[in-house]
Amino acid sequence: MEIPKMMKAAQYHQDDNSCRVNQIPVPTPEPYELLIKTSCASLCRSDLMNFEPDEHGLKPSGPNVPPLTLGHEAAGVVVGVGTECRGFSVGDEVGFLPAANVCFDCEACQVHQLWCETYGGCKMHGHSRNGFFAEYIAVHHRNAIVLPKGLSAVEAAPLFCAGVTSYHGIADLGLPAGSWVAIIGVGGLGHLGVQYAKARGYKVIGLDVIDAQLDEAKDCGADHVFNPNTNSDYVKSIKALTSGGCDAVVNYTGSKASYDRAPLVLRPGGILMVVGHPQEQLTFSSVDVALRRFRIYGASNSVPANLAEFLDFTQEHGIKPHVTYYDKLEDIHEMIELMQDGKARGRLAIRFV
Questions:
Q1: What is the CATH number of the domain that holds 281?
Q2: Could you list the residue range(s) of the whole structural domain that residue 345 is in?
Q3: Residue 205 and residue 249 in one domain
Q4: Are 96 and 64 in contact (CB under 8 A)?
């Protein structure tokens, strides 16, 4: 196919803290990159961090910062293969992780690519490098994977942040089947977390302050759900259900208040899994941690080496994100507004095909 010279992209403008759809050049891939025609890109809560105070140091700073294409959760079809790329052909449907300017081989890259310093620091697509709400994308081939048969790029897009992050929030607990797991925030990531937890044989309690999200959690298989804002006895009820507390709490939200309350529903020695990122710093009692009242774990979208395992599990257990699709890039404004207002259900995505 003929590759155009220009394309549409939804870009963040730091000068007035806005998003605009612009015409920009189609990226010219490096020899180690794939050029991908975007099939679908979906909105993640962390995309909105561009519009908020930069507590995590994710975006460029200083005067005259150029517009930056938003998005880090997408999938598409390979239309160009760099000379150094191996294992890919034109026409492959692929998904990919959003890190750039990393070496893939250092000790830090085996933990998370964000910590790689080999080339002066990781650049995250959608935050410090152009992202994926664009008609074409260039990504390093070592961050990409060919999708398994039966999984289209349109269906797969939300899996490459929400899905893989939700998966590791559950899989990295390492608990046996039959364990009690509470999931805080059962929306965009959490509704997938419920599905992954049930697939691992856990007994699942969903916690959210939005009743519609709790209904979705029940549809995904949650055994019990509670709204802490309307049920003042939820801690007592959970401890009664679980005979003393949950074995783990997985927090997918950006709410510091929910992190402060999370240990209340844990049994002694339980796991607090940190996934969501509040603007405020989290605080814990050193006594609680030292005396193992609870253990603190963390999970994220992980590293490329784990993508095959994640996709195989997702396919095997029929886990599906709940997605509202839009068909125009200009709909990004409505999507952002819905997510900012807390009205998004599941994932919001733009189909480019």
A1: 3.40.50.720
A2: 6-161+302-351
A3: yes
A4: no
Same domain, 199 and 310: no
**Is residue 51 located within the same domain as residue 92?**
yes
Q: Are residues 172 and 60 in the same domain?
A: no
Same domain as 277, residue 205:
yes
Query: What's the total number of domains in the chain?
Result: 2
* Phi/psi at 99 (5° precision): -100, 145
Residue 295, Cα to own-chain centre: how many angstroms?
23
Residues 140 and 289 in one domain: no
Write down the H helix ranges in the chain. Answer: 107-111, 153-156, 162-171, 190-199, 211-219, 234-241, 256-261, 286-290, 307-316, 332-340
What are phi and psi for residue 289, nearest 5 degrees? -75, -45
The pTM (predicted TM-score) of the whole model is 0.94
- For residue 328, the 8-state DSSP code is -
Tokens of 44: 């993640």
Each of the 353 residues of the chain gets a pLDDT tens digit; together they read: 799 999 999 999 998 999 999 999 999 999 999 999 999 999 998 899 898 876 655 666 677 889 999 999 999 999 999 999 999 999 999 999 999 999 999 999 999 999 999 999 999 999 999 999 999 999 999 999 999 999 999 999 999 999 999 999 999 999 999 999 999 999 999 999 999 999 999 999 999 999 999 999 999 999 999 999 999 999 999 999 999 999 999 999 999 999 999 999 999 999 999 999 998 999 999 999 999 999 999 999 999 999 999 999 999 999 999 999 999 999 999 999 999 988 888 899 999 97
Closest CA to 318 of 218, 195, 215: 195
